[in-house]
């Protein structure tokens, strides 16, 4: 019995030791802003999405999201004010939990995806607000209308993606827009005019 316990302890120790390098190798991004690498980045579309929520008839906050983003980020941690962000979203990517509603949102009554197939944001000013935060102001074109929007952005992490081995940086962002200002005014004010956007953005360095 004593030998069996010793053998089991030895096996557990060996497995733990063997697992340590593997766990280290699979670590993802670091939240340390000093780890961010300067360069030109492209959107990593599989892990980038923009969710939206708005008040539905005074009863609940209803939400959905857009995906399949494309675009670029030019970033130098030493010169945050020189950051350039250019993002395009296909309107047909809109999804909720209701297939019928997805179709309605793409129709001429709402986003009119056939006439206005994309939403586009291009930054005009970036102001550092903290070690890991910045305000990104830019022009948002949606439904054929352009208005300035400010995104409150926060660094999530950066480093080498352990799967594709690419230098990656990720951010979250939040903004609020009035949909009627962009001509998407169906059922206002019964369905809320104020729309909260939450952005999960991942970017891979190209150079």
From TrEMBL:
InterPro entries linked: Lipid/polyisoprenoid-bd_YceI, TTHA0802/YceI-like_sf
Any Pfam family hit: YceI
Keyword terms of this UniProt record: Signal
Keyword Magnesium part of the UniProt annotation: no
Domain Lipid/polyisoprenoid-binding YceI-like: 40-204
Signal sequence interval, chain numbering: 1-25
Record-linked SMART domains: YceI
Superkingdom in the source lineage: Bacteria
Family matches, as PANTHER family: PROTEIN YCEI
Identification of the protein by name: Polyisoprenoid-binding protein
Organism, scientific name: Asaia siamensis
